[in-house]
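User: I'm putting together notes for a lab meeting next week and I want to include a structural view of one of the chains we've been expressing. I don't have a solved structure, so I'd like a prediction I can at least talk through. The sequence is below, exactly as it appears in our construct file.
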Amino acid sequence: MKRNKPPLIALFSLCFVALMNLSNAQTINGLDLPKNLESTAIGMVLFDAEPVECPEPQEEEASIVCFGPPNQDLITTKRLVDERMNPLFPDWPRDWDMAEVGYVTTIFTQHDWYFIFVSEEALAITTPTINEADAGTDAVEGTTNPEATEPGTSSESNGGSASAEEVPSEDEVLRSCILEHVDLEAQLVPQSWGSGFDVELTIENRLSWAIAAIQVEFEIRSPDRSVPWSDGSPSQQIAGGIEPSETRSVTTSALLPDIALDEELVVEARLLDVADADMNLFVADQLVMGWGMEPSTRPCPPSP
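Assistant: Thanks for the context. Below is the predicted structure for the 304-residue chain, given as structure tokens.
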């Protein structure tokens, strides 16, 4: 679902207010902007905060503006930045990388390009700086521009091994939060209307907010067979929801053929996603018609 872009005058007004509030903004003369003026204005809009001193002293040539630590958890903060970013930068692909201390993305303007950082220590925006003595080094310290690297000179080709660990995607991070705070158990129970079975799903909610619906996938098989008798990926609303610290059970059809009813059966289920009270999914990588079209902004609780 594509969001409607706000009127252009609204975007100009938003940036104008941010620029007028800057203590170091004297004049704007065409493209001759004072140092950090554009990045500071963008940061004030995206982070909804005033600039502050960065946690650690920066090099004199560094062009970085900090906005203090976030008031929410990183996932919620990143989503709020997403919502403010989209109308200002319609072509931004909503692509974040996960760094060691948080999230980083890149935006482009008519005058420059910037890294946007969301971390526990600070929210920040910076202009990448390139060391002229080593044009093959990227702005992020410790990484090398693959386009500037000679073929056959990588660490792996020289007998070394790659030291960087594989970084999980945003969906994987969100789903790991769900799996950590929502317990799911599945069992086969007799149908109330026939001779077959239903799949009973028992959900314990250890989130700080109510669950209104779930997305799961299940598989029913016999231990001695390599192909399952039945599988499914139901998206199911839960009447009354599941409040924090509450455990409830719901059932879904197993859809087993008659030949399987006399077999020894085992069911396995996996939780994919949950929806909040507004029917917005938390991971939201597979939307459901009639449910919310935007990701949930509910926070992920800290690990127990």
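A couple of points you could mention at the meeting. The radius of gyration is 25 Å. The chain has two domains: 8-148, 171-275.

User: Perfect, that's what I needed.
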